[in-house]
Write a structure and sequence with these properties.
alpha/beta, 28% helix
Length: 255
């Protein structure tokens, strides 16, 4: 008899780097800790799953939700109809992330996406990105100051205004504005027909999206994993994600 976990298993995408000449896949502890603190168990998903379809299918059948993390890398522009190349790309992550989004949509599996993860959900559903938000007339510079400490980089940078009747409101996010951090260069230019905007920055940039016809598919441009144990907005979103994962598990038989 297999082990039955009482906490939901959350698949977490990883990023690939070169570590002293060694190709390395990794995920920051802050994402894993945020899931654990909210009541879930994180399971890292390596890119090579895409080269083993049966293993990938069996892995997904045992998961209760997916977390798409942030990353220093950017989605390659050909995925949203533009030419050129990114200085720091991660094609293995692009490939796996788009598959995970498709799977979550098809199976109604809960999905929580952060920063690059939001952009992956947007592109996977037919949307487009600004490659350099800071160069778009009328938009703010949403990048962090890398010369500052992490506490400053991940500190509150601007407010977001949630949509009063969207998913965030249904999760109990009822204040008209919330302060959030901002650590990104790319941002949403257009969302596809499947998504709806959930929140905006003061410059009008879309800061959160959801899939209206999905039990739980939420993506945010900021980083709620930072101090998720003390930030009220982060706690609400992670708690709702974990509860959605538990409901998903209850509604399907174990593989």
């Amino acid at each position: 008899m297999g082990i039955i976990f009482t906490k939901p298993l959350i698949g977490v995408i990883m990023c690939q780097f070169d570590k002293d000449g060694h190709p390395t896949q990794m995920v920051h502890n802050k994402y894993l800790e945020a899931i654990f603190q909210a009541g879930g168990i994180a399971v890292a998903l390596p890119h090579m799953l895409m080269d083993a379809p049966q293993v990938l299918e069996n892995s997904m059948a045992r998961l209760d939700g997916i977390l798409l993390t942030g990353s220093p890398s950017n989605i390659e522009p050909h995925h949203y109809g533009e030419s050129g190349h990114e200085t720091f790309a991660d094609p293995g992550r692009d490939r796996l992330a788009f598959h995970l989004v498709d799977y979550c949509i098809a199976q109604h599996m809960p999905l929580f996406a952060i920063c690059r993860g939001l952009q992956e959900l947007v592109v996977a559903t037919g949307g487009k990105l600004h490659r350099k938000v800071q160069e778009v007339p009328g938009l703010l510079d949403h990048r962090e100051d890398e010369q500052q400490s992490l506490e400053v980089q991940y500190g509150h940078a601007h407010i977001i205004t949630p949509h009063p009747t969207g998913l965030l409101a249904r999760l109990g996010v009822t204040q008209p504005q919330y302060p959030v951090n901002s650590l990104h260069q790319q941002g949403i230019r257009d969302i596809g027909p499947q998504l709806q905007a959930e929140a905006h920055a003061p410059d009008g940039l879309i800061e959160a999206v959801s899939l209206p016809d999905h039990p739980f598919a939420l993506a945010v441009q900021w980083h709620p994993e930072w101090h998720s144990d003390s930030d009220a907005l982060s706690q609400q979103m992670y708690a709702a994600f974990i509860q959605a994962c538990l409901r998903y598990r209850q509604d399907r038989p174990y593989a």
